[in-house]
Amino acid sequence: MKEKREETIMASKKLGNLIKEARTDAGLTQEQLARKIAGLSASEISAAERGVGDLTQDQLKKIAKITGVTQASLLNAAKGSTTKKSSSASKSSMQVTATERKLVEAYRKASAQEKKAAMNALKGTGSLTEDLFEAVLDNVDTGKILESVLEGVLKK
Q: Residue 154's pLDDT band (boundaries 50, 70, 90)?
């Protein structure tokens, strides 16, 4: 009985830490997060982050969506799930911050050349300025740019 209670307390603290980390990574205060979820106050979020308050599954799902973390990570922590994933499963799924999610979304929208420039920048290889300039020029009508530059020069 005592062991079960300790497991529940540990699960609550783990969930609280996950909520706080997700919220701060998303750049939100407790008040800002609470305003985005109907029926939830900043004090309830604070209590949940400290591991002394409980949130509903619906509230956890909303927090996950707003902060950009997986719903499963919060729901499993809330249930006290300690099942270990196989090594191949853990390699294919990971928690990401809101910033990382934005980077992935931007990367997916980028052209092949923009992706190459971004990878070179992250690796610290190549000339970032040249790579980005080439990527921009590939996606822009250079004739229009030259026209506007010439017009500006001729007006002076």
A: low
The 10s digit of each residue's pLDDT in 104-130 is 788 788 777 777 777 777 777 666 566
Question: What are the angstrom distances between the C-alpha of 151 and each of 15, 27, 62, 122, 144?
Answer: 61, 44, 52, 37, 10
The alpha-helical segments, DSSP class H, found in 26-141 are: 30-35, 42-50, 57-67, 71-79, 87-92, 98-109, 112-123, 128-138
Angle at 104 between CA 102 and CA 107, to 5 degrees: 110
pTM: 0.50
From the list 77, 1, 68, the residue with the least C-alpha distance to 36 is 68
- Mind listing the domains of the chain with CATH numbers? 2-81 (1.10.260.40), 110-155 (no CATH)
Sequence-distant (≥ 6) Cβ neighbours of residue 59 within 8 angstroms: 37, 39, 40
Q: Given the structure tokens 């079960």, which residue do they identify?
A: 4
CA atoms within 13 A on the CB side of 49: 17
Burial-class residue 122 by CB neighbours within 10 Å (0-12, 13-18, 19+). exposed
